[in-house]
Amino acid sequence: MTEPVETHLKDYKRPDFNVETVELHADIFETETFVTASLGVRKSPEAADGVSLLLDGRELDLVSIELDGRVLTDGEYTLEGEVLTLPAAPDAFVLTTKVKIHPETNTSLEGLYFADGTFLTQCEAEGFRRITFFPDRPDVMGSYRCTVSADKGTYPVLLANGNLVDEGELSGGRHFATWEDPHKKPSYLFAMVAGDLACREDTFTTASGREVALKFYVDHQDADKCGHAIESLKKSMAWDEKTFGLEYDLDTYMVVATHSFNAGAMENKGLNVFNSKYVLAKPETATDMDFQGIEGVIGHEYFHNWTGNRVTLCNWFQLSLKEGLTVFRDQEFSSDMGSRAVKRIADVRGLRASQFAEDAGPMAHPIRPESYIEMNNFYTATVYNKGAEVIRMIHTFLGPEGFRKGMDLYVARHDGSAVACEDFIAAMEDASGVDLSRFRLWYSQAGTPKVTVTRAFDAETSRYTLTFSQKVPDTPGQANKKAMQIPVRMGLLGDDGAPVSLTLEGETSLGPLERVLSLSSDLESFTFTGVEKEPVPSLFRGFSAPINQVTDLTEAELIFLMAHDTDSFNRWDAAQQLYANTILGMVAELKKGEPLALSTDLVAAVQTTLTHPTLDKALIAQALTLPSETELGDRMAEIDVDGIHAAREFVADTLAVALKESWRSVYEACKEVGPYRPDTQSMAKRRLKGLCLSYLSRVESPAFVMDAFASAANMTDELAALTVLVGMDSPESDEAMDRFYGAWKGDTLVLDKWFTAQALSNRPGTLERVASLMEHPDFDIKNPNKVRALIGAFCQANPWHFHRLDGKGYDLLADTVIALNTINPSIAARMASGFNRWKRYDEKRQGLMKARLERIKGTENLANGVFEIVSKALA
What does the pLDDT read at residue 303? Predict the structure, then answer.
C-alpha cells in the first residue's frame, strides 16, 4: 500500500480562496442522492497571482461543473484522486457542481449517511467532502442556505442549520424545506436530516427576553424519553447566561437523536445530532450515570455555540481550543448542578484511566499536536480532558473574576473568526495582566509531568519546607523537555486535623489557610514559618494540575488525610493511594510466594468512612471503590495482569468479610421508598447501595443478590444487581441475564448495558461468551454503540480476560479491527488503540500482541487511521 501523507502544523497557511456563500440543494432518493452546490468564491488578498482553487471530495460522482453559469470543459479543471482543481481561478466567481452520492451504503457514518430509517450528516472533521466538492477546512467560513427534498410520506421531517425560510410540495409525492443560517460557519458545522421522527417541543426565554423554540427529534417510540434532556438544555442555557454572559443567538435550537453515531454528539450550528445514548432517558431504562451523562453532554454541545461555533478554529491542530475549553465549561456546569466534589473525582478518575495511559503510550501528543495522518485519531482524551485541565489551571492562576474577564475579551475579539490557541492565551493575559508565557508549554509538550515532593521540618525555628522537583518524561518525537508552569493548590494540617496558616518566609502578616504555589523550574522550595508542630501536607488540592505526584507519605498519614482533609478530592485521593500501595505491595509479595494480609488500620479506615454519619454518600462510595485493574496496571513498569487481579480480589474479599455487618447495615439504610428521583441526594444513596451490594455479593448467597435484582424499581438498581450477578458462577446469574434480556429486548440502549455487563464479567469463559455474543441477533458490528458496549468494554475494561495467555483475546480484537476497517475506519482505529500499551506487558504477551499488530498492518487497503495507530504502536 502507498504510505499515507502526514500533515504538519508547521506547514499551515491561510486559505488562498474563501467561500463566502454556500447554496446547497440535496435531492434525496432511496438509492442515490444528488447534491448541487453553488459556491460564492473570492480569492484572498494575500494569495499569489495564478493560484489554483483546490476542492476536497471523497466518493463523489461528478455530474456537472459550471463557473459563473458556464459549463467547464475537461481541460478547464482536473479531478485526480480526492482533489478537484481549477487552475488559475478568477478573483471572484460562483462555482456550481452537481454530484451523485450513495448515503444508503455509507457505513462510515461520516458525510451524509442512512441509518435506522433516517438520513443524517456528520461532517466533523472532514465529512463535508463526502457531500460535495469543497475546500473542507475549518478556516473557510461562509453563510449557508440549504434546500432538502425527499419523499414526503417516507421522510416528512426535513432539517438543516439555521432558520426555516421556505417549504412546500413537489411533484411525485415529494416535498422540500429550505433553511438559512445567518451566521458564518465552517463546513464541519453543516448538518442536514431527513426522516420520519417525532418532535418534542419546549421553549426557553433568554435573559434579553427572546423566546427560543426547543425541538427534539427522536424515533416515535422514544418520544416519552426526552424530558430530562430538554430540562438539561434549559439549565445549560440559563447557566451560560449567568456564568459567562453568553446568550443563544437563533430562534430555534434543534436536537436529533440517532442510535448510529460514531461519537457522543455534534454541535452543528442550531441543529445538533446526538447519539441517542445522550438524549433518551426515563427511570425504567436509564441509570443515574445516564441521567448525569445526558446533562453533561447536552451542556457540552450547547456551550459549543460560542466556544467552537461563533469562535472557531483556524486549523485542526487547534482542536483543544474548542474541545478543552468546552469540556471545562461542561464540567463546571455539572459541578454546579450536582456535587462538585463527586464530579471532580469522576473527571480525574477518567483522566488518569485514559489520558495518563495515552501520555505514556505510542500515541502521546500535546494538546495541540504537531502532525497527524488521520485527524479523527486526535479526538483523544489528551485533546479533550487534558485540554480541560489546562484551561482549569489558567482558571486557578487567574481566579474566577480574571478568567471571566479573559473569556469576555476572547469572545469580543474573535466572534465570527477562526483562531488559534495563542489567541485564547493572549486574551487571558491582556484581560488579567498575568504573564502566561511559560504556561504555553502545556500546548506544545506531551507527557504527564512527574512532581516529586520532599519535606523538611525544623522544630527549633518553626520552619517547614516543601521542595518540588519536576520531570516531564520523553515521549515519541519529544525529549529533554522544559519545566512546566504548574499550580499547586495546597494546605497544611495539624495533628488535630485543623488547617495551619501558610505564611511564606519573608512575609510579615499571617498567611491564609490555603494558597496556590506556582512551580516553573526543575527544582523549587517553599518555606513556611510559624509552624509549631510538623504538619501533614495536603498538596494539589482539587487535582490542581494533571501531574503524577510522588510523595513519601506514610500509611498513617494517608489514613489521616482520608479522615481529616478539608479538601474532598484529596480525601478520596488519599484512599486511592492507600489501596494502590497495598495492592501493588501484595503483587510483589505474591511473586515471592509470601502470604497476604490486609492492614487492620486500613480496614478500620474503611469502616470509619463507610459509617461516617455526615459525609456525602456519593463521596463515601467513591472513596471505598478500589482502583480498577487497569488503573493499577498503569502504576507498574511491567503490568502483572494475574498478580493485580489476585491481589485486588484478595483485598475486596477481605474487606467484604471483615465489614460484612457494616456493608449490610449501610445497604439497608440506603434503600429508598417511593418513586425514582434523579436528584443529587437520591443518586448518592443508590450509588452507595450499589457498592455495598458488590461487597455483600462476596459473602452472601446468589439468592440474596437475585432478590435485589428482582425487587429493583429503577434501572440504576436493576443494573447494579445484574452486574454483580453476572460475575457470580451460579444458576441465578444466567436466570437474571435471561430475564433482563426478555424484559428489554426491544430497547437498543438498554441492550447495550446487557452486552457490557457480560463483557465485564469475571466468570470463567467470559471471552468465549463475548465471542458468541458477536453472533447474537441484537449485535450489529455496523453500529458503533454495540461495538463499544461489547468489544470495547471487554478489551479496555476487563484486562484479566482480555490478556489471557492463549492470545485469544488479542485474536478477538484484531479480527474486529480488520472487519471494521472496511465498514467504519474511524471505529476500527479506536479499537486498534487497545494494543497501544503492548510493550508494558511480559515477554510472552508482548509477542502475542505484536503478532496481531503486524497482522492488522498487513491488511490490504488498510485505512489511514488504522495505519497510523498500528504503525506508531509498532514503532
Answer: 99
